[in-house]
Specification:
- By secondary structure, the chain is an alpha/beta fold.
- It has a single domain, classed as Vaccinia Virus protein VP39 (Rossmann fold, 3-Layer(aba) Sandwich).
- The protein contains 5 helices and 7 strands.
- Strands 3-2-1-4-5-7-6 form a 7-stranded mixed β-sheet, with helices on both faces.
- The mean pLDDT is 87.
Length: 198
Amino acid sequence: MKNVYDLFMAPFEKRGLSRARREILQQTQGDVLEIGGGTGVNLTHYPYDQMSSLLIVDTNLSEAMQTRAKEKEFACPVSLLEMNVEELPFEGQTFDTIVVTLVFCSVDDVEKGLRQIRRVLKDDGMLLFMEHVLPEKNPLRKIFGQVSPLWERMASGCHLNRDFASSLKENGFQIENMTTCMKSVFICGTAKKTRNFS
């Protein structure tokens, strides 16, 4: 089952994103919230035997996501809900693991979204992330910066020039480890809540 987005992303997945997803998601455990599930690509990489539940939320659940979620039996309950990361209706400290992959490039209010994630993540919980960001070096950095306003209009609000790592630190997260791939176009890693953050 391939849709336009999956076809567009296929070269990136082959060049390393698929491996990065698998490595990051092997750390998933307990009650899990995935923000912005997209087409459901992560469903094939989760270690379900380590998980108590998986809730996937998106502002608009795609047909591809719904189909993938119904294709097979999972070793833990899997649920889908439509909602915005900026307005999560869950009680504080609900989830052991929260997953975001290629979603914060298009979140309207990054600060509000990250603070909501911090609120519903348990104090000893883990945030797993994979995002595309403004590359570290030229010429890619300059190109991404110049193209971003046009790309944002063409790609449903996707920004090419965000600094997700800095946003994490500014909104109450401490990065535990982080790697880059494809000339620092993508960052992958884990983060925990910063203590005594207000």
